[in-house]
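Recall that a protein's primary structure is simply its ordered list of amino acids. Everything else, from secondary elements to tertiary packing, is in principle encoded there. The following example makes that idea concrete.
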Amino acid sequence: MLDRLATLQLIVVTGKGGVGKTTVSAVLGKRLAARGRRVILFEVDPRENLHQLLDVPPSGGALIKVEPRLYLQHLNAREALDDVVREKLKVGALVKKVLSSPIHHHFTEGAPGLKETAVFGRAYRLLGGHTPRGVPTPDVIILDAPATGHGLSWLTAPQLISEVIRSGPVGHMAAEITAFTRQADRFGIVAVTIAEEMPVQECLELLDGLSARMDRRPEAIVVNALYPPFVSEVDRGDRADHLWRRRREVNERELARLAQAWSGPSLQLPLLPVDPGPQLVGILGRHVEWAERSSG
């Protein structure tokens, strides 16, 4: 999986809320950087959690260096769209007039897909070398996307905008991004789930949606937070053992359901008694490398 992801330029990580997709994004970013790739992690969630997992201050919208070859940026989708206006108009007085216009505000808030497309546009420009001074052009950008309920809308936003707005700077930008996301050698998707009924169901619906609306499938599915196999020899008959057995049975049932619909690359990560933070990212990163070596 890592070998394949290391060849891409933009990776979108999506999954149902609470399945650990932000943690998986951090793990992938760290592992690809360790392999020599220059990586930028994008986060759009207003709660801004990635910096806590990486033990750095909040980005505050800036590109901050986490370690050699790894950067982090928290993006506000509205601000990304306003930046498109600044870039295209260039004249300060005109920019100020447009951004303060109620018509502009209502249009950009109401038009579906505009802000999402602007986020993709920011990634596209960075990949093209338009980075702040002192920040090298990234090899790969990992976007920690919203939960799968909105994830498909995010992924298809540029296509929607390109179909509706066929001219002008926004239309041209959306068309370029749509063409980029259709290139399997440059753009990929990682779906994250846990082996429980509702997250797996959303994952299966995402697979159907990607196939129907983008003619794509994920590069991999990551099944996070698996209970360890139950060891009957140490069954003490108490409530903890009962919980362990029951949760593992649910995991195995949902893994089987997922396997019926997905035969592509997958990665299973264990449930760990570790609080979210750098230690968890490090342990899971070592597990990913171990899984890669074992599968090779």
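The longest strand covers residues 140-147. Strands lie at 10-15, 39-43, 64-67, 70-74, 140-147, 187-194, 220-226, 266-270.
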